[in-house]
């Protein structure tokens, strides 16, 4: 393995993209936030081929982002639905950031982009970088640097 191919896996962004970098995967997660949980709901909403949807749902379950739960409608056989786990719910910020970027930079008439509001006040909210004391940091003053490598895991178990 060349150094250039080994290096990206050390980056948390690269690892996350290996997991979520497919558009169908992110759209399934988005739809799960919108309350979709059944295979038929994802199919109808996304128009994705059933084999692709089956593979993405299985991967999201394997990675702990969705969990399968059994349900049964009266008179029908038991089926499975897919529900976000706590790990999956942490992707709300990712989905929100993609939605905010799209609204700001790729607007379309009649868009169904998600809108986020404070449940208590109804006030619109947006994503931001915020310091520990609550001060909002504008993008123009944000500094980003490569993090230090994490220490190697103890291989002696």
Structure characteristics:
157 residues, alpha+beta, Arc Repressor Mutant, subunit A, two-stranded antiparallel sheet, 7 helices, 40% helix, 10% strand, disordered N terminus
Description of the structure:
Strand 1 and strand 2 form a beta hairpin. This protein has a domain at 12-107: Orthogonal Bundle (Arc Repressor Mutant, subunit A). The chain is α+β, with helices and mostly antiparallel strands and 157 residues long. The protein starts with a helix and ends in a 20-residue tail after the last strand. Helices cover 40% and strands 10% of the residues. The relative contact order is 0.09.
The gist of it:
This is Transcriptional regulator. With 157 residues, this protein is of the alpha+beta class. The longest helix is centred in the middle third of the chain and has 14 residues, at 92-105.
């Amino acid at each position: 393995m060349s150094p250039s191919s080994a290096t990206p896996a050390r980056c948390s962004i690269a690892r996350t993209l290996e997991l979520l970098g497919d558009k169908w995967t992110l759209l399934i997660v988005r739809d799960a936030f919108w309350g979709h949980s059944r295979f038929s709901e994802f199919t109808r909403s996304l128009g994705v081929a059933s084999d692709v949807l089956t593979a993405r749902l299985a991967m999201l379950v394997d990675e702990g982002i969705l969990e399968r739960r059994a349900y049964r409608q009266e008179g029908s056989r038991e089926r499975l639905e897919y529900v976000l786990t706590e790990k999956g719910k942490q992707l709300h910020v990712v989905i929100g950031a993609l939605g905010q970027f799209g609204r700001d930079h790729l607007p379309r008439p009649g868009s169904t982009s998600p809108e986020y509001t404070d449940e208590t006040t109804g006030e619109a909210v947006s994503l931001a970088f915020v310091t520990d004391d609550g001060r909002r940091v504008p993008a123009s003053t944000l500094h980003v640097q490569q993090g230090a490598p994490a220490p190697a895991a103890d291989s002696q178990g």
